[in-house]
Design a protein that fits this description.
Number of helices of chain B: 5
Number of strands of chain A: 0
Largest sheet of chain A: none
Order of helices and strands of chain A: HHHHHH
Strand content of chain A: under 5%
Number of helices of chain A: 6
Distance between the termini of chain B: 92 Å
Largest interface: A-B, 23 and 25 residues
Structural class of chain B: alpha/beta
Strand order of the largest sheet of chain B: 5-4-3-6-7
Strand content of chain B: 15-25%
Shape of chain A: elongated
Order of helices and strands of chain B: HEEEHEHEHEEH
Helix content of chain A: 55-70%
Radius of gyration of chain B: 25 Å
Number of strands of chain B: 7
Oligomer: heterodimer
Helix content of chain B: 25-40%
Radius of gyration of chain A: 30 Å
Structural class of chain A: mainly alpha
Distance between the termini of chain A: 51 Å
């Protein structure tokens, strides 16, 4: 393959990657219009854990406690007196923070978010140090002492 | 012989750090003490009670804010719940004992996800002439953060939540706690 073909091929890939990224960005950020009350109820209840189930959200659970919370969320959304965050805070004030499927990013709960990132950074740094050390140790160049030993051995053989 | 390069002991240092962290976690675990109290925690304790506006089984209006001046006890109940049925004699005793106190507490059954007929049948069979209030759509239960019945809550004469007992009442617990609260906050 000639150099100009290689370049053309490279630019094609970059162009395609740029188009794909732009489309993903557009799809992710585009405004889908005003949300209906049901959209808001679904979004709020998806963030709340059913207090009597294991790992189910209020949105999917059919338990009586989950249905009661769903009805309360619907009442609050219908009344228009509270924002989504305020409605979630209202439920949290009643049932405690265990009712939140997504832990808060403040206080002790923030450790849930911070610790994995800290562990990732520390792990990456440790791997970087170790890889660098391996590369330095395996550079293939003998030290002056090693060369002298080999030279001496060769001289004694001859 | 080839010369030996000095290698820093990374593995022992890492193992020591991990070991120290594990020992610290174990220390925290061993040192943790379970809550010895019968009382359950709630963000509402010490806070004004949630608004409760509903009707009784006799279709009379009920508004908690109009009960100020009295100690109010809410017992969240369902006639199909076994612990609710088992603790019922405790409530009968409590209601009876309160009659002989200076400022008797008002006991209310909050009907949780149950129908009126079943509740009336239960009380006809097992007695208990206090008021039973409806909890339409579970609004009162959510207001108090009640997920499972039975639960018993005590609200002081100023309308502040003072106690939450989650689960079945043990013998004499409600009388004992009410006496303590009346001393602590005044009857």
């Amino acid at each position: 393959m000639s150099t100009s073909n290689k370049l053309n091929n490279k630019y094609s890939w970059i162009f395609m990657a740029a188009i794909a990224s732009a489309l993903l960005l557009f799809g992710g950020l585009r405004d889908s219009g005003p949300r209906s009350q049901q959209d808001r109820i679904d979004a709020i209840t998806s963030q709340l854990a059913c207090p009597t189930c294991q790992g189910e959200s209020v949105y999917v659970s059919r338990a009586s406690a989950a249905e009661a919370i769903r009805a309360e969320v619907a009442r609050q959304v219908g009344s228009g007196l509270r924002t989504d965050d305020e409605t979630i805070a209202y439920i949290e004030q009643r049932f405690g923070s265990k009712v939140l499927l997504l832990p808060r990013s403040t206080g002790i709960d923030s450790l849930v978010w911070a610790l994995p990132i800290a562990a990732l950074i520390c792990g990456a740094a440790a791997l970087g140090v170790v890889f660098r050390k391996w590369r330095t140790a395996d550079d293939g160049d003998p030290s002056a002492d090693d060369s002298a030993l080999v030279d001496a051995a060769m001289a004694s053989d001859s | 012989m080839l010369s030996e390069k000095k290698v820093k002991p990374v593995a022992p240092i890492a193992a020591t750090v991990v070991g120290i962290v594990l020992v610290c976690l174990l220390w925290v675990l061993v040192g943790a003490k379970p809550n010895p109290s019968d009382n359950a925690d709630s963000p509402l304790l010490g806070q004004p009670a949630p608004a409760v506006v509903t009707t009784t089984l006799e279709d009379k209006p009920f508004d908690l804010s109009r009960r100020k001046g009295s100690w109010v006890v809410f017992n969240f109940f369902n006639s199909t719940c076994v612990p609710c049925r088992i603790e019922h004699p405790e409530l009968l005793t409590f209601a009876q004992n309160q009659l002989s106190t200076d400022n008797p507490a008002e006991l209310y059954t909050v009907i949780n996800d149950d129908d009126d007929t079943a509740v009336l049948a239960f009380f006809a069979e097992n007695k208990g002439d206090w008021q039973k209030i409806r909890d339409n759509d579970g609004a009162i239960a959510v207001g108090f953060g009640v997920a499972k019945v039975p639960e018993t809550w005590i609200i002081d004469p100023n309308g502040y939540v003072r106690l939450r007992i989650a689960g079945q009442l043990s013998e004499g617990l409600l009388d004992e706690q009410m006496s303590i609260l009346k001393v602590q906050f005044g009857s």
